[in-house]
Design brief:
By secondary structure, the chain is of the alpha/beta class. It has 9 helices and 12 strands. The strands form 2 sheets. A 10-stranded mixed sheet has the order 5-2-1-6-7-12-11-8-9-10, with helices on both faces. Strands 3-4 form a two-stranded antiparallel ribbon. Helix 5 links the parallel strand 8 and strand 9. The chain starts with a strand and ends with a strand. About 10% of the residues have low confidence.
């Protein structure tokens, strides 16, 4: 793993995610962290018109550079070994700026917080995370605002039989797990009784033994995954996005508050 992109908005949540990224980079032996801030705001949620902030002046950009430099220094103060930290800002709206950054900067993963600094950013963070997950095949690590880094030993893949695991997703999951030298396990939650048979193609693609596959019967998808993760000391949840998959459930209305905003562990999205 080489570079990690970390979107920040100077909130406590974003700073926590950036601190998480530093420890994550240490475990994954990443060489660089790119702190990224986009300050463009959409005029309306239904249009693509970009409103430049009133403060988009040389003075504002100088202040922004100072804030980014301060954040960079605070993170560097926590480092013992050398990891290069870069900063990048953009006047575009978040998703457009993110797309541009991913085009310009070769990164291995993206790490971001799950809440924003203002009520508006909290309102749109779910859709931002969905858009971020859907714009790149890079692993996206979403860090809940209360989570502090603990070394990742066990990653739990919340698997849905409604979605087929693509070869590039399997490669990405294997590489991500290998970079952290972690153990991967798979859980499928069903609202009805299941035959419990492990999908051989899935296990073969991920290079896992049948013992790494688990099925849980629960009337609530999210609660079933949360309970299993807690009972088995999972350090991360992993999911792939899909219209009817776990990730769509994770960010659907009240589900957002129940899991994404209050998860005990980070959620990793692999598109």
């Amino acid at each position: 793993m080489q570079k990690i992109l970390v979107p920040v908005d100077f909130s406590d949540t974003a700073f926590n995610a950036a601190r998480y990224a530093v420890s994550f980079a240490r475990q994954a032996k990443a060489t660089d962290i790119v702190l990224f801030h986009a300050y463009g705001l959409p005029v309306e949620a239904t249009t693509s018109v970009v409103a430049m902030t009133d403060a988009d002046t040389p003075e504002f950009r100088q202040m922004l550079d100072q804030q980014m430099a301060q954040l960079k220094q605070e993170l560097q103060n926590e480092l013992v070994e050398y990891i290069n930290i870069e900063t990048r800002t953009s006047p575009l709206v978040f998703i457009e700026a993110m797309h541009e950054a991913l085009q310009d900067v070769k990164v291995s993963a993206v790490i971001m917080g799950i809440t924003g600094k203002s009520a508006m950013s909290q309102r749109f963070i779910g859709s931002n995370a969905l858009d971020a997950a859907n714009m790149s095949t890079l692993p996206l690590v979403i860090v809940p605002h209360t989570v502090q880094y603990e070394k990742v030993h066990r990653i739990l893949f919340a698997y849905s039989k409604k979605i087929s695991l693509q070869p590039h997703q399997a490669d990405s999951i294997r590489n991500f797990t290998s970079a952290l030298q972690a153990t991967l396990e798979v859980v499928h939650v069903s609202v009805t009784e299941s035959d419990g048979e492990a999908p051989s193609a899935l296990l073969q693609a991920l290079g896992l033994p049948s013992a790494a596959y688990h099925e849980v019967q629960h009337t609530d998808l999210v609660a079933g995954i949360q309970d299993f993760a807690a009972d088995n000391n999972a350090d991360m949840l992993l999911a792939i996005p899909g219209e009817y998959g776990f990730f769509a459930e994770l960010f659907h209305k009240s589900i957002t508050k129940r899991l994404a905003f209050h998860s005990a562990v980070p959620v990793v999205i692999v598109r």
